[in-house]
UniProtKB/TrEMBL annotation:
<dbReference type="InterPro" id="IPR001789">
    <property type="entry name" value="Sig_transdc_resp-reg_receiver"/>
</dbReference>
<dbReference type="GO" id="GO:0005829">
    <property type="term" value="C:cytosol"/>
</dbReference>
<dbReference type="InterPro" id="IPR036388">
    <property type="entry name" value="WH-like_DNA-bd_sf"/>
</dbReference>
<dbReference type="InterPro" id="IPR001867">
    <property type="entry name" value="OmpR/PhoB-type_DNA-bd"/>
</dbReference>
<keyword id="KW-0597">Phosphoprotein</keyword>
<keyword id="KW-0804">Transcription</keyword>
<dbReference type="Pfam" id="PF00486">
    <property type="entry name" value="Trans_reg_C"/>
</dbReference>
<feature type="modified residue" description="4-aspartylphosphate">
    <location>
        <position position="54"/>
    </location>
</feature>
<feature type="DNA-binding region" description="OmpR/PhoB-type">
    <location>
        <begin position="120"/>
        <end position="219"/>
    </location>
</feature>
<keyword id="KW-0902">Two-component regulatory system</keyword>
<dbReference type="InterPro" id="IPR011006">
    <property type="entry name" value="CheY-like_superfamily"/>
</dbReference>
<dbReference type="Pfam" id="PF00072">
    <property type="entry name" value="Response_reg"/>
</dbReference>
<feature type="domain" description="OmpR/PhoB-type">
    <location>
        <begin position="120"/>
        <end position="219"/>
    </location>
</feature>
<dbReference type="InterPro" id="IPR039420">
    <property type="entry name" value="WalR-like"/>
</dbReference>
<dbReference type="GO" id="GO:0032993">
    <property type="term" value="C:protein-DNA complex"/>
</dbReference>
<keyword id="KW-0238">DNA-binding</keyword>
<keyword id="KW-0805">Transcription regulation</keyword>
Length: 224
């Protein structure tokens, strides 16, 4: 079965290179779009298996497109592409729901491996996940996700909450006082946690962001 990949990129030279590599060398079915206009409708129409999404696009940015996809509960894996080497840009992409982030110039073999990871068979989460309090691990069947203390704190808070938690709520729950307006520590923790989980539960967005309300879990997690 041929796997469809959508490339949303306004740089013709890069788009041509990616199309040639993915379609000719890797045998994917590739279709392209060169701006942010009508991107959401195109994804709904074409239902690609994976999206390569540039950040700097005409009409709508890649961030805006990604937000519209996740708001519409479209969980198609997305790899963001950019020439920007800013850590904040990468953090924003991951917080908004990107599955991966790759900097230009793009190395074909690196891209190939990242695509393979994201389109491998998905894990269907039909049972509760277990949050091991003693070992700071997330457990599911034979999968063990080792968590940093900073990641564990956030997952524990979300597991206990019946409502979405804003970044400010999470900061207060962890530290006991209000965050400074320019504090990005919770965003960094969230992006690290979501990226780590996505490596194990491909295609399953365990932590989602509900606009204007905050972050929440899409699956039940039992603490042990």
């Amino acid at each position: 079965m041929c796997i469809d990949i959508l490339i949303i990129e306004d740089d013709k030279e890069l788009g041509d290179m990616l199309t040639y590599f993915l379609s000719t060398v890797e045998n994917y079915s590739v279709f392209r779009h060169n701006s942010g206009e009508n991107a959401l409708n195109l994804v709904i129409e074409k239902t690609p298996r994976l999206i390569l999404l540039d950040i700097q696009l005409p009409v709508h940015t890649g961030f805006e497109i990604l937000t519209s996809l996740r708001d519409a509960s479209i969980l198609t894996p997305v790899i963001m592409m950019t020439a920007n080497d800013s850590e904040l840009s990468e953090t924003n992409a991951l917080v908004l729901g990107a599955d991966d982030y790759i900097r230009k110039p793009i190395r074909a073999n690196v891209l190939k491996e990242r695509i393979k990871r994201l389109i491998s068979p998905t894990v269907k989460l039909q049972e509760k996940l277990i949050l091991s309090m003693k070992e700071s691990q997330l457990l599911y069947q034979d999968i063990t996700v080792h968590l940093l203390p900073s990641e564990f704190e956030i997952l524990e808070i979300l597991a206990q909450s019946d409502e979405p938690k804003s970044v400010h709520d999470l900061f207060f729950d962890i530290h006991g006082y209000e965050a400074n307006a320019d504090d990005k520590s919770i965003y960094m923790r969230l992006s690290s946690l979501r990226k780590k989980i996505s490596k194990y539960f491909v295609g399953q967005e365990l932590i989602k962001n509900k606009r204007s309300r905050g972050f929440y879990l899409t699956r039940d997690i039992e603490k042990q």
